[in-house]
Amino acid sequence: MSQVIVFLALVFSIVIAIFAVQNTTQVAVQFLTFRADAVAVSVLVLISAALGALAMLLLGVAREVPIRWRHRSVSQQLSKAQKRVAELEAAHAATSAPTAQPSVPALTGTTGGEPVAPEVKPVTGSREETR
């Protein structure tokens, strides 16, 4: 995008230069209290183009400065928030000790570490017999 802008500015400059070379007629200029009797049209065009470029530069700077100030402020807020998050995570890690897992008896037998189902004894008889 910036290459396009530079190219367009170059083309505009060339057009202005060609216009200035072809228009060397002397004219009288009067603006408010300023008065010039013999000024070439090409000089007026170049001065007008330069003043227009200066005006655009000033308007661009006036727009850019508040944006950069806001960006700097937001960057500082983000940096502070990231530091605060890091502090809170460190404090949380320090206060939360690893909880002990309840010990569960292993269901391994003598078969080389393979799980073995617990032995289930069949219930025989009815309730009345066991009393």
The span between the termini is 95 Å
Helix-strand string: HEEHH
Low-confidence stretches: none
Provide the β-strand percentage band.
Answer: 5-15%
**What strand line-up does the widest sheet have?**
1-2
- For the residues shown, what is the average pLDDT? 80
Notes on the protein architecture:
Helices cover 61% and strands 10% of the residues. The protein is mainly alpha-helical and 131 residues long. It has a domain at 14-94. It has a two-stranded antiparallel ribbon. Strand 1 and strand 2 (34-40) form a beta hairpin. Helix 1 packs antiparallel against helix 2. It starts with a helix and ends with a helix.
Please give the structural blueprint.
Blueprint: H1 2-22, E1 26-31, E2 34-40, H2 41-95, H3 127-130
Antiparallel strand pairs: 1-2
Helix pairs in contact: 1-2
Characteristic key phrases:
131 residues, mainly alpha, 2 strands, elongated
Concise summary:
Helix content is 61%, strand content 10%.
